[in-house]
Amino acid sequence: MKFTLSWLKDHLETHASVPGIVDAMTMAGLEVEAVIDPATKLKAFTVAKIVEAVQHPNADRLRVCQVDTIDGRKEIVCGAPNARAGLTTVYAPIGAYVPGLGVTLVEKPVRGVVSNGMMCSAKELEVAEESEGILELDDSLAVGTPAAEALAQEAVIDFEVTPNRPDWLGVAGIARDLAAAGVGRLKDLSVKPVAGSFPCPIRIEIKAADACPMFAGRVIRGVKNGPSPEWLQQRLKAIGLRPINALVDVTNLISYDRCRPLHVYDVDLLVGKTIQARLGHANAAHAADGHASEHLLALDGKTYAIAKDMCVIADAGGERPVGLGGVMGGESTGCSESTTTVFVESAWFDPIRTAQTSRTTGITSDAAYRFARGVDPGFVVDGLELATQLILQLCGGEASQVGVAGAPPAPLEPLAFDPAYVHRLSGLSIAREGVLEILTKLGFKAEGHGATLTITPPTWRRDIDGKADLVEEVARIAGFDNLPSTPLPEVPYPTGGVLTPRQARARAARRALAAFGFQEAVSWSFTARKTAELFGGGTDALVLSNPIAAELDCMRPSILPNLIEAAGRNANRGFDDAALFEIGPVFAGDRPNDQRTAVTAIIASHPARTWDKSGAEDVFAIKGQLMTLLEELGAPTASLQVAQGSASSWWHPGRSARLQLGPKAVLAEFGQMHPAMLKALDVEGPVYAFELWLEAVPEPKKKATKSRPAWRGSALMPLSRDFAFVVPQDLAAGDLVRAVQGADKALIAAVRVFDLYQGPGVPEGSKSLALEAAIQPSDQTLTDKDIEALSAKIVAAAEKIGAKLRG
Amino acid sequence: MTDLSTLEAELSAQVGAAADLAALDAVRVAALGKTGSISNLLKSLGSMSPDERKTAGPAINGLRDRVAALINERKTGLEAKALEAQLQAERVDLTLPAPARRKGSVHPTMQVFDELVAIFAEMGFAVAEGPDIEDDFHNFTALNFPPKHPAREMHDTFFFNPRKTETGEDGERMLLRTHTSPVQVRTMVSQKPPIRIIAPGRTYRKDSDQTHTPMFHQIEGLVIDRDIHMGHLKWTLQTLVARFFETGSVTARFRPHHFPFTEPSAEMDIQCDRSGGELKIGQGSDWLEILGCGMVHPNVLRHCGIDPDEYQGFAFGLGVDRLAMLKYGVPDLRDMFAGDVRWLAHYGFSAFTAPNPASGLS
How far is the C-alpha of A585 from the C-alpha of A315, rounded, in Å? Predict the structure, then answer.
C-alpha cells in the first residue's frame, strides 16, 4: 500500500515530517517497506531562468543560453527546440547525476563552446515517461527552488498491510491509527449524503446473498467524462496508478482513500433496467464435464471462464455477465470518454469467495485485494455518496436516489472486557482511562463501569475476535517500547539435560562424524521421484502436488541419493574426493511414525597420490567408522549381527551388509554402493557409505544413579595363543570368531583375526584364517594343563562349524 | 712378572684395536673366557707354592680386574658409537607430509541450532520435535488460520495429493509444515502447563531466491503458565539476542505485527549497520527484522484443550539458517543446502567446538 504525505494530510492534521510518520507507523504496526523520495533523486536539480538564447556558432540545432541559476549566471549549450529566452526550467550543475540519462555531468566543450551545466526535460528527471524539450515551468517559481518542490514530486511511503487490517488499505484508516498514536488530529471522516433528484432507474437484485449481502447503486446522468483534473492525476500517478478518465479515477481514488472499491457502468451500454448479483450459471450440459457455461470479457481485455461458485454481476435480466463481483468489471459496459450516464456500484462482497475467484482467475485487482480482506460493511452507502460528490464535482450531472439491495453482514458481537486484562496479558501498566482513550480513538465504543466494560468494535474492524485483540490495540498504540522486560520465573533446572535420548544421540553423532573427518551437509528433504524409486521410495503418498521443481517432487526415502548427488556435483567442479554426512529425516509414508532420523555418511574416495603410497579408503574404512560411531552412541555393538547380502538393492551385493540385532531390528546398512545405481545418478564410483537409523538404536536402560559398576583390574598377566584354521571359503570370518569366542566366555577376552590366506598350501575352495585369542585369567595363573585344555576347547568349537586346525 | 706386563700390554692393545663389539667380545673371550689367557693364569695359581701364590695371586687378579675394566670401558664407548651410527642411519626427512587426515566439519545451521539449544537450555526450555509432514489441523486450523483465509496464502504451502477415501473421493490432503508451530500444538495437546519448550526443525515453503529456499530451519519457543505476559517474552528474546550475537550488547526493538496464532503479535528488530556493504550487528542506526513473536492466541489455546482464562503464554519463531547467515556472514541462503565441499570447509565448524557457557558459543 502506497500513499503520499499530502494525501495523508487530507485526513490528518499534523506537522510531522516523512521520517516522523514512518517511525510512528512502524511502531503502531504498519511496517514501512520503503520510502521513495524523489527529493533525494532530484537533490541537485533547481529552477533556473533562461535570460538569453542565441544560435550556436558551429551547430544548427544547438543554442547557447545565458541562464540564471542558483550558482549565478551560467553559459549552457542546449539542444532542445524550446530553449528560449524567458523560459523557466530546471538546471543541473556540473557533477550532477541525471537519472534519466544515467550519466554524471562533466564540463566539456560542445562543438567548441563549453557548457557549464544542463537544462533538463521531464524524462531526464524521470518525472515523466516521455517528454518533448526541456521542462517549461510556471514563471512565478524563483530561481533556486528545488526541482522536487517545483514539480510537486512527493515522497511516497510504501508499507506492508497485514491481512487482518484491510482498513489500512485506505489512507483514512492510516490517518486514524496515526492520530491514535499521537501523530496528529484526525479530521472529520464523515460523508454528507447527496440528495437524489429522481428515482434510480436501475433496479438492483441480489440472488446470492452469501456472496453479495449488500449492493448499493445510483445513476448520475448528464455527466461529461474526460481526463480528470491535474490534482487527481498527480495523486494517482504518485502511487503508481495510471489515470484513465474522471469516472474511473474517482473509483480508484476512493478505493485507496477509504478502502472502498467501487465500479462504474455506462448505463447506455447496459442491457435492460436491472443489475443482478448472482452466482455463476451452472449449466447442466457444461457442468458435467467441468466446463464453464459463462465467460466474461473483462476490462483487462482477457476472457475468463466463470465458475459456478463465483459472484457474477449481470444485466439483461440476469442473463449477461458484466462483471465478476468485487474482482473486475466487464469491457462491454465500461465507462469511456463518451459516457454520459453512469451507474455507480458500491457493494459488499464475501471475502473468501472473492479471494477464491481472484485465485481461480488469476486476477489481482485492487478491488479483489480489498474485498478479499474484508472492507468496511458500514461504509457501503457512504462510499457511494462520496463517489457521487466527486463525480458531480468533476463531471457535473444529476444524481438519482440511492438504490440499496440487501443489508450489511451482521456486526460483530460486543465484547466483555476488564481493562486490567491489558496488564495481565501485556505487562503494561496503563490506567483504565488510558485504555479507554486509546480504544475510543480507534473507533471502539465502550460502555459500562469498572471491570465490566462492554466494548463494541467499529464496523471496519472485523478482525477483532476477542479480548486479546483489544489488548493488542492498546499495547501497540501505547507503544511496545514501554513493555517491561521481566525475567522468566525460575524453574527447576532439568536434571539430565533438555534433550531426549534421540536428540542427544543425533548431537553426539554429529560431533563424532565431524571428528572422524566427514563434512556435514544439509540437503533437501525432497528428491526426484525416480531417484526415490531407486532407493525404495516414491510412493504416491510422498509425491508433492505442487513441487518447486520437477527434480524435487518427492520426499526422500534415504539421505544416500542426496549425498551421492552432492558428491557428484563436487566432482563435476573438480573436487571428486569427498566425505560427507547428514543427519535428517527420511520418509517411508506420510504419517508421523513413518518419519525416521537417518545418520548417513558417504566417502567418495579419490585421494591425491601420496609419497608413501597410502591409498584410498575401502569398504572396511566405512565399516570401522560406523562401528566406532555405534559404540559412541551406546549401541550394543557386541550383540550386533553383520548380515551380509541382506542389505537393500542399492548396495553392492557382495560388499554390503545390514547391522542388526535381529531381522526386525535393523540398525544400519553399510558397504559399497551398487555401480548400476551410481550410474543412474551419474556419479563415478566407488562410493562407500552407511545409513543408520537413530530410532532403531535401543535406548540404554534408565538407571537411578550415574554410578558405574566397580572396576576390577586383574592382577594376572594376560596371555595370547595363536590358531590357524582352514575353513571353507564361504565361511564368514565373523562366524569363526564368534565360535572361538564362545569356547570359554570367561577366559577369552578377545579374538582377533590377524591373517587371511588363500593359495598354495591351502586346499582349493578353502581359506586359512589365523586368529589370536587374548586370554585373561581372573582368579589364578593358568597352568600349562589349563591352557592346553582351553586350546582344545577352542579347536573343538571351531571344528563344529567346519574349521580344521591347520597342521 | 715380565710375562704379566707383556700380556697386559698386549691385551690393552687388543682392546684398543677392537673396532666393534664383536671384536671386543673376541678379545674378552681370549683373555677372560674359560680358556682365556688370564683365566689360565688364574687356574695356574692352584699349582703354586703358598709363597709364589702370595705374590702371583694379587698380580694376576689385579691384571684380571684391570683388563675387565678396560674391556667394559671400551664396550661402553663402542655401544655409544654403534647407537650413534644407527641413529644416523635412521634419519628421515620430516618435511615430507604426514598421512593426510580428513578434516570434518559441522554445518553452520546445525552449529547455530546447538548454540540456540545451549542458550535456551540454561533458561529451562526442553526440546520438542514433530513430523515434517503435517495435516491441515496442526499446521493451520489449530493455529487459528481460518479455512481459506488469505493468511494461509502467505505461507506458500507444499501439498501432497489428497488421500483417497474408501469411496474413492478426495479426502485429507497432507502438507509439509510451513513452520514448526505444529510442534507447539502437539506439545500443548499432549502436555499440561506449565510448558517451556523450543521446537527446532525443518520447515518448507514454496519459494526460492537469495534469501528464500524451499526448505529452511526454524526454532520456535513456547512458554505457557498462569502469569506469563509480554514482558517475559521481551526479556527472553532480549536475553537470546544478547547471548547469541556475542557482541556485548545488541539493541532490540519490538514492533506490532500480525500473526493469526498470536495476539498481541510482534516482530523484533535488532540494531545493525549496513554501511559499506557489510552487515554489522550491535552497532549503527538501521534495523534488521529477526523474528516474530507474541502472546499465544486464546483460540490456539482452546484448540489445544487449554483454558485461556486460566493459562496464557508466549511463542516466538526464528529462522535458524538466517541467524547463521547474519552471525557468520553467509551471503546466499541457497549455498547452505548445496553441499559444496569448499563451502562446507569455509563456513563449517570444528567437531570440538560444541557450544557451551564455559568456552562460549562459537
Answer: 57
